[in-house]
Amino acid sequence: MSLLxxxxxxxxxxxxxxxxxxxxxxxxxxxxxxxxHIHDLIHMLLQKQRGVQFVAEQDGALIGFxxxxxxxxxxxxxxxxxxxxxxxxxPYRGTEAESRLFAHCRTYSADNGFSYMSWxxxxxxxxxxxxxxxxxxxxxxxxxxxxx
Length: 148
Description:
Layout: E1 3-7, H1 13-27, H2 35-46, E2 51-58, E3 61-73, E4 78-88, H3 96-111, E5 117-118, H4 126-133
Parallel strand pairs: 4-5
Antiparallel strand pairs: 1-2, 2-3, 3-4
C-alpha cells in the first residue's frame, strides 16, 4: 500500500470535490456551497498565492486533504499559516495518513517562512483534539467567534 502526501493538482479536481463534499456536508453537516464555488476555491488554491491544498493519496485514490490559508500576524508582524481543514475518510483517521498530512502542513509552514501554523477544531470533535494534543501543539487561550 502506497501512501503519498502531495500538493493538490488540477487532475485532482473531481475527487477533491467529492472529499470536500464529504467534509462540508457529511462530516460537519453544513450546506453544500455548490460545485462551482468549490471548483473556484480549488482553482484559487492551486495558484498557491492565498493558500495551498495538500492531498493524501493511497494507492492512487484520494483519501484526505488539508488546506492552509496565508495571512499576517500583528503580534509577530510576520506571515502565518492557518490550517483551515484537515480531513480524512473515516478508515484513515488516526492512522499514519493523518499524521503525515498534518506533518506535511507543519513542514510546509516552517520551510516557507511562516512564523507559526494555527488551527481550530470543533469543541465536540474529541478525536481530533486527542490527535492535536499528541502533536506537541499547545492549546490556545483565545475564544473564537464568527458572524455573517
